[in-house]
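U., I forgot to send this yesterday:
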Amino acid sequence: MLTALVWGATFTLTKNALTRVDVYPFLFVRFFVATVVLVAIVLLTSRRHRFFDSRTLGFGVPLGMILFGAYAFQTMGLGNTSPAITGFLTGLYVVLVPILSIPLFRTSPPRRMWMGALIAAVGLALISGPGILHLQTGDIQVLICAVFLALQILLIEKYGRTMDALILATIEILVVAICSLIVSGFQGSTELLTLHVWLQPVVLWGVVINAVLGTSLAYWGQNIFQQNITAAQIAVIFSMEPVFAALVAWVAAGDILSPLQMVGGLLIVASMLMVDPHVSWTRRYSRRSSERVIRK
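Result:
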């Protein structure tokens, strides 16, 4: 829940920082700082030899590329829509988790999941207003982000349980930093070499809070939590993220949603809560997790 609160706050912090810096230089600095923090934790916990685990490395690199896609589209979307709406649209990954599990893992989600998807669609229509058939660029970018986040949760659920959570998170975050630097280089950005830009309070706080709390510690924690609970349970807990995003945007930036948008946001949260952590599509993984905890 604390992770969801931090992530909710990062929408407003990132939105403000993007008024001073471009998307990919910001992502590089954020994830580079996060990588440094995680590497420091690795060194302090004497896990250096585990970096050479080819299995974790082979899984962490593509997982990091998926995470890069999520943050790239989310950060671009923030430049074109409000933090509150970005939070609610990002939260749709909770509904996408069981939907994507059908083609990926050949699961059979219950009717409740389909009802949740329908409610989420209605919520999206209310948030987007009359232009639902012509979604804004920012809305589409955030929706793509939600797809990438759902994939990341499902892949950790399926393949990441037996891997070292700290090392996996470090590899993921490092890959995001490298991808961001490569894109910045292709764009010819010079902001990375301009120190005074990064020392501006709105940018500095955005980087520090996003990197340390919202990235390194958050993803390390997520990888640890998911070793003992299912992706569905994680998704339900994280359904509070868009609520926190809207509250922080209102308190810190005066970002107020219209009545219809508020109803749409509540419907999206309701759709997330319909993803019951004990339904059939996760029962197989829940049983394995329970057996492992009992053995310990």
